[in-house]
Amino acid sequence: MPQHHTIFFLGATGFLAGDVLHLLGRDYPNYHVKALVRNPTPERVAKLKQLHPNLTVVEGDLNDAQLIADQAATADIVINSASSDHWPSVKATLDGLEKNAASRSSDPPLYIHISGCGIISDNIRGEKVENPKFWSDIGLDLKDCDQSNTHLESDIPIVAAGTRKENPIRSIIIYPGQIYGVGRGVQKTTLWLRIFMDYAKRVGYVGTWGRGFNAQNTIHVEDMAAAVLFIFKAAVEGRAEEGANGLYFAVTDKILSYGEWTKLMGDHLYSKGVVKEPGCKPMSPEIVEPLGNYGWSLLGGNLFAKADRLARMGWKAVESSKVSLMDNLPEAIDAALEDDRPYVHIS
């Protein structure tokens, strides 16, 4: 690869992306970042340029397949921190990267895709389970996951593109746990927080999928961004595992049940006058069923992962040991209330 890469970045205005761009701007200011932005207002563009000094905006959205394919066909690196379940944009990215690889067979492009631990959900619908499975990313085969789980529609073709014999790409998929914190970018709060707050405003209380006994590993957004940069740096230097072995869980060993943090959320929103009752309780089927298996898999299951690959490389979380999700939740809720944009699910 050349000394000064071009990065095509999808999802640049998102929650995690803000912290990733901040770190890229700090450590790789000479890399040219071309950011896909749906609504490039002067305010949003200025914020993105504050995060990375060598950033330009490509106006478009995830439905602009030809635009995405064209950009991926000419970039040295693609980082996708947008919706990991938006298959048309992932397909367009892979199509562009395949053309890219064909034109530079001795130096294939790098694709870093941010997915999520929803691939390992046991889909227990918020109930208790004895001896839940903990998944390691070493030896992980996506075909061993429940194929009804979220993210796999995109992730399996990415691995295939990274392992094929003709025009392969350098593929890496990163699987965050439950990310929390207040971000440094355009979007200050995480998606799951906005989903639950959106439902709370609709029904007047904070609810859980089922009884809320399901749990998952947590990670602070600053640690998550640091993990992405750690893997990015290793990949640029040719030290990262890729393709079939390029699957990385990015989690800490701190596990929290949904019932615990939703109770705190309910108490905090009640104190703010946002909901009609404190605490939390199960949401009715009429509320949760419209999201289908996406909701039950992602928000009603146990997602227990071990970041063995990152640990083997020497990465350690820092901020998560200082500030837990429960410590941070009131601040994050207040940031989301100040933003006050509704969550819109992309099907």
Automatic annotation (TrEMBL):
Which Pfam families does this entry report, sorted A to Z?
NmrA
Query: Boundaries of each NmrA-like domain copy?
Result: 4-82
Sections of the chain in a coiled coil? none
The molecular function terms of the Gene Ontology recorded here are: aldehyde dehydrogenase (NAD+) activity
Q: SUPFAM superfamilies attached here? A: NAD(P)-binding Rossmann-fold domains
Q: Pull one GO CC term from this UniProt entry.
A: cytoplasm
Endpoints of the signal sequence: 1-18
The regions listed as transmembrane in this protein's record are none
Q: Which UniProt keywords apply?
A: Signal
The name on file for this protein is NmrA-like domain-containing protein
Q: Which organism is it from?
A: Phlebiopsis gigantea (strain 11061_1 CR5-6) (White-rot fungus)
